[in-house]
Amino acid sequence: MLNEKLALHTPGPTPIPPQVAAAMARPMINHRGEAFSAIYRDVAEKLQPIFQTREQIYVIPGSGSSGWETAMVNFVPVGARVLNIVIGDFGERWVKANKALGFEVARLDYAAGSSANPADVAALLGKEQGTIKAVCLQQNETSTGVFNPVREIAAEAAKHGALVIVDAISSLGAFPFAMDEWGVDIVFTGSQKALMCPPGLMLIAASQRAWKAAEQIRNPRFYLDLHAYRQGFERAQTPYTPALSLYYGLQAALEMLHEEGLANVQERHYLMGKMCREAIKTTGLELLRQDEQFASPTVTAVKFTQGIAARTFRSTASKVFGVVLAGGQGALKETIFRIGHMGYITPNDVLVALASVENTLAYLGYPVETGKAVGAAQAVWLEHVRQER
Amino acid sequence: MLNEKLALHTPGPTPIPPQVAAAMARPMINHRGEAFSAIYRDVAEKLQPIFQTREQIYVIPGSGSSGWETAMVNFVPVGARVLNIVIGDFGERWVKANKALGFEVARLDYAAGSSANPADVAALLGKEQGTIKAVCLQQNETSTGVFNPVREIAAEAAKHGALVIVDAISSLGAFPFAMDEWGVDIVFTGSQKALMCPPGLMLIAASQRAWKAAEQIRNPRFYLDLHAYRQGFERAQTPYTPALSLYYGLQAALEMLHEEGLANVQERHYLMGKMCREAIKTTGLELLRQDEQFASPTVTAVKFTQGIAARTFRSTASKVFGVVLAGGQGALKETIFRIGHMGYITPNDVLVALASVENTLAYLGYPVETGKAVGAAQAVWLEHVRQER
């Protein structure tokens, strides 16, 4: 039944606006000419308010995962001791990356569904007495739908002279983030989340303090050497061939985000998270993050009731009800599903995702009153628009 | 709030699938070459099962409204007496077209929300004793969300030697229709309804009996002279420049309809109509067509509760809740709204449209239990998929 018109609720890749798709269909140009430089400058300028920084932002052809390596090899000497804060699977992956690159990893681990506690970071950094050169953390842990108090953790790191490196892949654009004000040293994101583009671009910025530290560092690196990007910035040129069509798309997406208004974009994401949580509470299913505080505005993780097979649940939602939900990752693979609500997603899209949860439960034989969860989400939305009047 | 991502629920234009949009972006070609002829033949072949005919189908650059004139000036002598069956605003418009073209119009009128009764047609044709040369009717009256029993009316017309001309603009593709089997002489539709394309193409077919009648007819006509199209059919060429990008789009849309399966497409439309009706019944609003029989699978008309201003209702649904509903036409302008559910629309889209009805009522201060109407529609959908198992 129009199976190709699926509602995509994975937490990245996210749906592409038609304006972005149209922009990406534009013809190839000479990337060493003025036409590309104009796009480069426009994109760089429109990104600064999203990062909340006066620093230069570099756009690199690569997956989000290239952000970990780019941040590390440019700003931290290989062999140095770093702290990885791990609240989920992406935190875990960053540990792997750091170890593979030759860093010595100290960890702070939290149970799935928890956020990091700045007091723990302070205690650990105090105990380590200046041996930790960098603190690595996700702003939003995509695998659990929980975010971290970046500002408070950055403040603790600064006290101990450690760089703060933030993976804001599934948050930047959708969350409040203030690189300069919060004292974040390095932050990176990907094109396929709140920035409403296909995957393929990694975007990264570094503070003056980070660049100062970089001067002393001679790590082995080539493709992800940010100095080459930095040297080209004034000329509005990339060191290697830029991913042109993705650049066109990013320009169109940034235009849309600014037209909506960055504060409105963040408010929309907060609203959608709240709609999901209030709806799920009516279903008998349990939120992985039960506390409202630090519950993600971009992805909601839900525990399965005993007896529901994860694979059956998601394939039913997709094949019978046309909604693509995400599964769990790592240890949570069989025990949760996730609703992505980031990027080119509206409250109406969230209603469809929630209807699919109800419909799928009912189809699989669980007692469900159809419309109850959707109705709870509608009520949250109505309350929101009433307050806006 | 992402205001440009509106859910379009007008009964035409309807949303365009990305595949159709992509096809329309293809470059222009020489329309007198083999590349276009191949598209022409493919489209002609894929249209026949939708019309359920062995006759040739012609694709003409024009609005749906050009269908009335094309059908009349090619197959009925100007000045002849014709019967117009009027169950709503589009029936009324056809009367105007016929009068403007110089036909003598007899009418059968029905109240808004009613369908035509074949017995009335039989009685009128009997009384007229062969003076009526053609019976003109809509299969689906877009302004009221009611359809007519075309097959039964065609049978009555045949008994009295009158041609049957059917405007299937808002039905063809979404409804069962069997031109040859039902004895329909002329049928036409538009590209922007169930055929999932932008407006701009009118598609028309005529029976052998109609073509035989056409031989004697010397009406003034030029652009809409179907003989010119007929002469080009074997060569797969149009008499005038075809609307190339719309042709590309139509080819892609037909490919999608056949892939879904024509019976499945019709079933989807029936399901969506049923979902709307069962949902509306829970809201306290009243369906314009209360009887299930002849209630349209492509558009549902709903009466306003006293006190709701039509303009406020629709602008709230659109501006606050992101759903574009249609207003009433003609005499129904202030008293109804309509939900279009045809073409590239899924049951999930219908849930969003219904949520917007609830949300808008609640926002405007009417007592509404959010989720009740949506839940009723979900229940209809669930029942449908359970039966399919």
Automatic annotation (TrEMBL), chains A, B:
GO molecular function, one term: alanine-glyoxylate transaminase activity
GO terms (BP aspect): glycine biosynthetic process, by transamination of glyoxylate
Residues covered by the Aminotransferase class V domain: 22-329
InterPro entries assigned to the protein according to its UniProt record, in alphabetical order: Aminotrans_V_dom, PyrdxlP-dep_Trfase, PyrdxlP-dep_Trfase_major, PyrdxlP-dep_Trfase_small, SP_NH2Trfase/AEP_transaminase
Positions where N6-(pyridoxal phosphate)lysine occurs in the chain: K193
Pfam families: Aminotran_5
Reported cofactor(s): pyridoxal 5'-phosphate
Chain residues that bind substrate: R338
Keywords, comma-separated and alphabetical: Aminotransferase, Pyridoxal phosphate, Transferase
Family assignment from sequence similarity: Belongs to the class-V pyridoxal-phosphate-dependent aminotransferase family.
PANTHER family: ALANINE--GLYOXYLATE AMINOTRANSFERASE, AMINOTRANSFERASE CLASS V
Record function comment: Soluble hydrogenase catalyzes both production and consumption of hydrogen from suitable artificial electron donors or acceptors. This subunit catalyzes the tritium-exchange activity.
Subunit structure comment from the entry: Heterodimer of a large and a small subunit.
Name of the featured protein: Tritium exchange subunit
